Amino acid sequence: xxxxxxxxxxxxxxxxxxxxxxxxxxxxxxxxxxxxxxxxxxxxxxxxxxxxxxxxxxxxxxxxxxxxxxxxxxxxxxxxxxxxxxxxxxxxxxxxxxxxxxxxxxxxxxxxxxxxxxxxxxxxxxxxxxxxxxxxxxxxxxxxxxxxxxxxxxxxxxxxxxxxxxxxxxxxxxxxxxxxxxxxxxxxxxxxxxxxxxxxxxxxxxxxxxxxxxxxxxxxxxxxxxxxxxxxxxxxxxxxxxxxxxxxxxxxxxxxxxxxxxxxxxxxxxxxxxxxxxxxxxxxxxxxxxxxxxxxxxxxxxxxxxxxxxxxxxxxxxxxxxxxxxxxxxxxxxxxxxxxxxxxxxxxxxxxxxxxxxxxxxxxxxxxxxxxxxxxxxxxxxxxxxxxxxxxxxxxxxxxxxxxxxxxxxxxxxxxxxxxxxxxxxxxxxxxxxxxxxxxxxxxxxxxxxxxxxxxxxxxxxxxxxxxxxxxxxxxxxxxxxxxxxxxxxxxxxxxxxxxxxxxxxxxxxxxxxxxxxxxxxxxxxxxxxxxxxxxxxxxxxxxxxxxxxxxxxxxxxxxxxxxxxxxxxxxxxxxxxxxxxxxxxxxxxxxxxxxxxxxxxxxxxxxxxxxxxxxxxxxxxxxxxxxxxxxxxxxxxxxxxxxxxxxxxxxxxxxxxxxxxxxxxxxxxxxxxxxxxxxxxxxxxxxxxxxxxxxxxxxxxxxxxxxxxxxxxxxxxxxxxxxxxxxxxxxxxxxxxxxxxxxxxxxxxxxxxxxxxxxxxxxxxxxxxxxxxxxxxxxxxxxxxxxxxxxxxxxxxxxxxxxxxxxxxxxxxxxxxxxxxxxxxxxxxxxxxxxxxxxxxxxxxxxxxxxxxxxxxxxxxxxxxxxxxxxxxxxxxxxxxxxxxx
Length: 887
Fold this sequence. Notes:
There is one protein chain. This protein is an alpha+beta fold. Helix 4 runs antiparallel to helix 6 (about 135-145), helix 21 runs antiparallel to helix 24 (about 555-570) and helix 23 packs across helix 25.
């Protein structure tokens, strides 16, 4: 007689036919001394008994002939609603009693199909797994595991792999559930890059299902196989966790991570080594790279699963037809892929030649080409939009009429607006804030209507400050002036240094993001001037420090200053073009982290003597932030202007001096104005996005109350039409649950994958000679040369520690990074251009900056000594100091 129940310790890898892939693998590991939680397997013979008793064999054979979702669903319901024979039920309950003994044990009940966890087909996440199972619910959960063999996803997956439905059967693993403090996944080869010399570990708080379901972005550690030293450490903001124990009286598994724990590192260096070592032992035992699920509870490591990695190449999305190019000047604002809801709403406000592919914005060359009156190849056009080269512009007579018509139409449409905004004061857009308040309070406007009203469809006679957000074209309007300025300097003043044009274009008062950084430093000065505040901020996690300060009456001056700051800048956020990103007014913890960074700068005095901000004392002994002082870039520009004026006076034909000087000064002033307009407009664009986010959060709260959504943050993984359908009752939770999970997993995948520069177009290979390993090249964004220790920061919400004079190395920057520039000696950025936020702020703070430096956050590690040559766009790695840590 075939065994119905087998202990894990008695199973081996060859027992797949009756223990399933997962059961056989776990049994093999348990029998070889791996730390697998104890348990037993209900074999496929029990499943066969149930199928025969329900007479389902014929229904299963029909699925092979013509798969039908309703037939598969009927099989599922028959199994779930069935009753097990008394003999089988008693054997299962007796095995469970032996496993539990006299302990308080909950079990994990996990499906183990015979076609599961194989080298060519993993079925990961498609079959049932249930946690917190006690004896009262054990039989039901086993039936649900069996029924999951006939889920629509599993049926479709088998059909796509040519696996006959009749040939597959199901065992069930019943194990003691590990109440994990931390859990995760380890890959013994990089599943994205395919690299076999590194191990990738992902971890989060609580149970591992949060990672598997894509509910949380986990911490990520990349470990070199040789020597197990850490190559990369990315600490995520982990918003949710699956609780190791259910709260009494509730069956809700998903909970929010406490604020002080969200950005804390989940694994110590020793624990990372432990996970890596056990994962490599799994690989050595099975002989192929492994995908390992693990957990740590009470300091003890547990191995939950080990299966082959089904692919070692980056997954490819469905083919995209057409020719597309990533426009760098736009892409630097979208450093991570957009969530589906954000992508839908942004697309509604974008011109038709811009589309979202893989969550990132691309130009559609086929739609754009008719509007360009030049005869350019696809490769030349791609080079132009990726800002790699200046192609030879050859007029195309065939496209000239349409291009001229488009130019005339555009001029008529926005010409008046451009004329009205050619020289506005710094505060001319301040009225937009009141419009945002009116739209926010308008209950008849949903997210899309609010988006269109604030971004695309202003009223014709509204103040110009509202209209500038519709289309200010500051990038396009600035470029001719910059090219003219460059040409004039080259023709008339050959001997000027290479950084001259950057200095002439810097030193603009009223750049909001630069002023915001100075205001954060001024807040640090207030913290120092208020007894006890600096100690609280320095010693506690940001969220906990903020709560303490709010409850402390002696910190009233500081919290009042913070509230004034948030009243102006509270709509900003990290990754702020993504609607999913919390705004500072919702969670000011990132601002507290920035302030703490300044307080930690012990070598630098912060207070009234600071060159960046003034702080005055009030009569009551408190302090108040007043207007920040302008950056010293203005003085540097003034000195250069004196040099240029003197050089022009010495040229022949002195009468032309005044004309040439006016042209140079006028052109540089135009460039500064449009650069400022571009940077400041972004602040107001983000203000509009903040209103749209509030509308979405209001809808989310309503759907959560009605049970149409189960988890906060899921709303951003819906398409906009689905959100409308949920509100109207045309869709229910069961209709969108699987979609949300799949999109979360896809979003995590594409986040780890670099954006393709072009789709359907091959960029021409660069002809430059190969560079030495110690030299990285990019694009100059701010002039000057500086050498110092590198500090790699991947997310300032998680890590904002930057010592004075260190070189900031970042994957990208947006205004949330600005305060770090005040402490940095120089900056090196992976994504960006001369016009990017990093370049604009660096020029105002007179610090060298090189952008568009590929893989700089991987090639440079914290503690390395580097030289940043902002004049030539080069970064040299000088050495690696002993004791420097890898990031």
